[in-house]
Amino acid sequence: MDGTGTALGGGDARADGAADPFAWLEDIHGADALDWVRARNTETEAWLQDGPAGPAGGYEALVDSLQEVLEAEDRIPGVVKRGPHYYNFWRDAEHPKGVWRRTEWASYLTDEPEWETLLDVDALAAREGVDWVYAGVQMLRPALREPYERALVKLSPDGGDAVRIREFDVVRRAFVPAEDGGFDFEVAKSRVSWAGPDAVYLASDFGPGSLTRSSYARTVRQVRRGHDVAAAPEVFAVDPGHVLAAVVHDQTPGFERTLAIDMVDFHHSRTHLLRPAADGREEWVRVDVPEDVRVDAHREWLVFAPRTDWWLADGTVVPAGSLAVAGLEAFLAGDPGVTVVFRPDARTALQGYSFTRDYLVLAVLEDVASAVFAADPAAGWSLTRLDTGAEFEAVSVAAVDDEDPERPNDVWVTRSGFLTPTTLLRGVLDPAEPDPAAGDDESARGVEIVALSPVKAAGSHFETAGLRVEQHFATSDDGTRVPYFQVGPARLAADGQNPVLMTGYGGFQTSLTPSYSAAVGRGWLTRRDGAGRTGVYVVANIRGGGEYGPEWHRAALKEKRHRAYEDFAAIARDLIGRGVTSPQRLGATGRSNGGLLMGNMVTGYPELFAAVSCGVPLLDMRRYTRLSAGHSWIAEYGDPDVPEEWDFVRTFSPLHRVDDVPPGTRFPATLIWTATSDDRVGPVQARKMYAKLAERGAEHLRYHEDMEGGHAGAADQRQAARMLAMSYEFLWRHAAAPVLATR
Fold it and tell me: Any stretches that span the bilayer, and where are they (predicted)?
């Protein structure tokens, strides 16, 4: 592989020793391969267009309906506060590629804020003849009380992970020309951090030897304004077998520091701080913790999140899944002084944290239900539960701006549920009224959230009357209770005839929590089949995710990967056993690692499903480490080039499991979709899986590959609407209206 994800050389021989007949599909941009892609796309699009019109108007009407909600004006414009301004990136029908813009607080509170457009990506794309896709900005923190003036804007030419990075003048609303010393870095899988007003730390592709085997940057250079990148000095580097190198400069006034991260694999890293050396120069000093302890720095604190139990020198343990803190200077000097702020139990898991100036706020899951806590460092870090949410809603909390001179302890609170549109609130963390029983004990002082009030509320875009959210638990093959959410009619007939759509992920300690999706509502929950039944939507919280912390994740790592698939199948059986649905009415969808999950449902549990939608998937686990960024996931799946690891990796490699399926087995109707420009997983595995299933004579098999959109699968809202509509339509026709599916 090269750094762009283009396959170099032929494919491996098959397990039976024969040449791989589909190796030619690995030539991602080859003429023959792209002709094959276009032919498959034409077949799938013709099938979609040829479907029944029905009362909703058919596939194109569904695309229009989903685009309408994706571009709805009553979406909440999420903002980031920098100085007095609130910055937002926004896509709508007028600006499909989007605009980067800003407003002020008083205006943001109104129903129609006055936005100042900083960068119109549609206009830029038209002017430069490149289909730019916005990928984010990084602003230069000015001197205290000075305005923000400069930013580094990331733009992808095709929606992939590789981006061009250009310096932008926020005041002039224009890119800084190269002749004026403006930073402009070529398209690559780059990471960048301001090192001051006239320098940046750049991790990128600098030529031979500068990339890891995962296709990310191995080295970091400090690039000064007006200097040649090729001559810039290297400041940090990692082993080519590691995932990536990055250097980040913390610009917090009074706490400026530079950190380097050596990402050893997806779950292990080493953090270094740039410190004065004895000879007056600077050197990297490693933060002395185990590699599976994630390290963060905030003001005077180091923050630790261990994945396994961390034993300190004095014999105390910092539990896996906890959050702990220590004074930065004292810790580096050899005096740990580690305080455990949050300790999980069998039902809880830490989901995230954020600092205001004076407080730490935590988002926690309790049996996949949200809870929020706050701690006061001045009061001994004791946790106080905050009242911010409701049953079956996901709640996230983040500091607004811990450097705001007037409101440094403000927090955003975002709430969302399956049937409840997202609401954005703002409140203030304050000391709680003292408990009289605590006397003068400062360590007993709690925290409360005051003045919590709605700021924005998204509109409702599908009918929720008569629908209900429930949580159930299925028993997996090894006896583990696995939770799942079921969204559907409150009066559900338990006769096995309800069309059900399951989704899951089960990897990388990622949790699936309740969230409002108008696309799910319109694409599944409110559609009616020929008998007038609406769809049921199920979210599976299988092992491999983070719903119960690191242990839930580790339970499905490497040789235990099958546990995730057993969990998903157990939920499917539970739905069937409870009379919610039947195999003829059950569909499933997943993407990326969730696409690997779907591939294992197709090849391992075909009897349970009527239809499967498999998006931007991993499927060839023999070669995944050599395709795009696959090498970076060895810690999750195992290394197929190590014989004893290939022995278990093969058991969840869908491309190879096809050979294990007995002749005559009915495969579920299967849609495989991907993007040519996906430089993270890549389209190769999807192409070969389709070809392999077609060779086996699988019926109702469809394939679609967009040319752009990257791993997200879409570069704008119209493309996103088509991608979603294609998946929902395919699943609906096969699971809810099977008589119509063959038309």
Answer: none
Residue-level length of the chain:
743
**DSSP result, 353-395:** EEE-SS-EEEEEEETTEEEEEEE-GGGTT-EEEE----TTEEE
Residue 617, CA distances (Å) to 10, 595, 688 in order: 21, 4, 11
Nearest alpha carbon to residue 563 among 540, 591, 586, 583: 540
The per-residue pLDDT for range 460-477, each reduced to its tens digit, is: 999 999 999 999 999 999
Task: Return the HEC string of 599-651.
Answer: HHHHHHCHHHCCEEEEECCCCCCCCHHHCCCHHHHHHHHCCCCCHHHHHHHHH
pLDDT digits (tens, 9 = 90+) for 523-537: 999 999 989 999 999
Tell me the pLDDT tens digit for each residue of 230-286.
999 999 999 999 999 999 999 998 999 999 999 999 999 999 999 998 888 899 999
Please give the C-alpha separations between residue 158 and each of 125, 133, 581, 716, in angstroms, as whole numbers.
11, 7, 40, 11
* H or E element that contains 120: strand 116-120
For the annotated catalytic residues, the residue numbers are 592, 711
Residue 2: what pLDDT? Answer: 32
How many CA within 13 A on the CB side of residue 331? Answer: 23
CATH numbers and ranges of domains, the chain = 33-68+461-735 (3.40.50.1820), 345-457 (no CATH)
Average pLDDT over residues 91-112: 97
